[in-house]
Specification:
By secondary structure, the chain is α/β, with parallel strands linked by helices. The protein is built from 15 helices and 13 strands. Flavin mononucleotide binds next to strand 8, helix 7 and strand 9.
């Protein structure tokens, strides 16, 4: 099966962009990806970051719902410790109905302490383990709300319930039944979990519950470790791990020639964002160490050009196909390439051309090691 394509929209807007511009860029990307044949679009949720300035990913999805036909959407991620589970369960259910099922749900614990603080979580409560317990309780409540069966739960973090509904006897009773905000068709939405750290507790949760694993590419060793953690937990819980479900987010840019692609990334919005925002964050989270280790260099020497040549997937369609296939051989591969979106709001031409090339000329020629790509099968 050929690799699927997704966009992940954080969206790395340069400081100074208005909310209106960010929102518009989100909807434009949804429409462009749908037209180019992308399978999915994930949108982040951040309350604190200027460069990642979307507090409510569901608003972009709702705006794009009526302008798109086949692409699926997911918040990546709704941060469960930051809101009441019933309210969130209703939002998710209603949106999945509006999208008529073109929806899956990304969940996360939240990466940024300032955002946690705004939601009343501070000090020791910001510990990963504590946040993970909040995620588990929130999920427990949301699943009960979606089932629409009576319960009342007094939790450690939240209380919630679903009322007993009396059977409607008269026509008048019918007018007062509970509105149904369960996800599309009453099914549980597919749930995806983001993993980031090397010994990722999120990957363990994903494996245990058979959720879709989503990783940020942070070096071959870290990625292999994510798959190990996920598959061990998945097998222990009685499931069969499927690499096709693994989505990995990466910086990918495609142009007609290698030189053009590299120049665009070094001098355009992607380079601008990495130099100012992402390289300092990556150093802080230790992600540079993984990349440097893969290339056998000192992490202090890893700069933008190093990333463009060794870590990002940048080039003509042929080069991007070769780079991805080499990466797949080294780490086992994944099912969805989740392209990281950037701020091409002022001049979107090169960005949209890249999305077209990735979807139409790259993805059909990349597949999991051991399986055959569409082109190979056709040949
Ligand atoms: C693909 C991806 C998307 C993420 N999106 C968000 C987000 O929208 N908001 C946020 O605060 N954290 C986001 N995170 C971070 C997660 O909330 C969480 O801190 C992290 O995945 C925890 O990973 P760990 O269990 O491996 O330590 C994202 C992580 C990944 C890998």
């Amino acid at each position: 099966m050929a690799m699927e394509t997704g966009l992940i929209f954080h969206p790395y807007m340069r400081p100074g962009r208005s909310s209106r511009q960010t929102f518009e860029w989100g909807v434009q990307n949804a429409v462009a990806c749908d037209k180019a044949g992308f399978d999915s679009m994930m949108i982040s949720e951040h309350a604190s970051q200027i460069w990642e300035n979307i507090p409510n990913p569901e608003l972009i999805m709702a705006a794009a719902a009526l302008q798109t036909d086949r692409i699926k959407f997911a918040p990546m991620a709704h941060l469960l410790p930051h809101q009441h589970p019933t309210k969130l369960a209703m939002t998710i259910g209603w949106l999945s109905q509006i999208l008529e099922g073109r929806y899956f749900l990304g969940i996360g614990a939240g990466a940024y302490p300032l955002a946690s603080y705004m939601h009343g979580i501070r000090g020791e409560q910001q510990d990963t383990q504590f946040l993970n317990e909040m995620v588990r309780e929130s999920l427990f409540i949301m699943e009960k709300i979606w089932k629409r069966e009576p319960f009342f739960y007094e939790g450690r973090f939240w209380d919630a319930g679903f009322p007993e509904e009396e059977e409607a006897v008269t026509e008048e009773d019918e007018q007062h039944k509970l509105a149904n905000f369960a996800p599309w068709n009453g099914d549980m939405p597919e749930i995806a979990v983001t993993g980031f750290s090397k010994n990722s507790p999120s990957m363990k949760l994903a494996g245990e519950r058979n959720f879709k694993p989503v990783s940020i590419f942070s070096g071959i060793e870290a990625l292999k470790r994510h798959w190990e953690i996920y598959s061990e937990a998945n097998i222990a819980a009685g499931f069969t791990p499927d690499r096709q479900r693994h989505a990995v987010s990466q910086t990918v840019f495609c142009a007609d020639t290698d030189a053009e692609a590299k120049r665009e990334v070094m001098e355009g919005p992607i380079g601008y964002c990495f130099n100012r925002y992402l390289i300092p964050i990556w150093r802080r989270f230790g992600m540079m160490d993984g990349y440097a280790k893969d290339a056998g260099i000192d992490p202090a020497e890893a700069d933008l050009e190093f990333l463009v040549d060794n870590v990002f997937v940048v080039g003509s369609p042929d080069t991007v196909v070769d780079k991805l296939n080499t990466l797949f051989e080294a780490c086992g591969g994944w099912g969805t390439l989740q392209v990281e979106a950037h701020d091409y709001y002022d001049e979107p031409g090169a960005w949209f051309h890249s999305l077209e090339l990735i979807s139409k000329e790259v993805a059909p020629r990349v597949s999991l090691p051991g399986s055959k790509s569409i082109n190979a099968v056709a040949a």
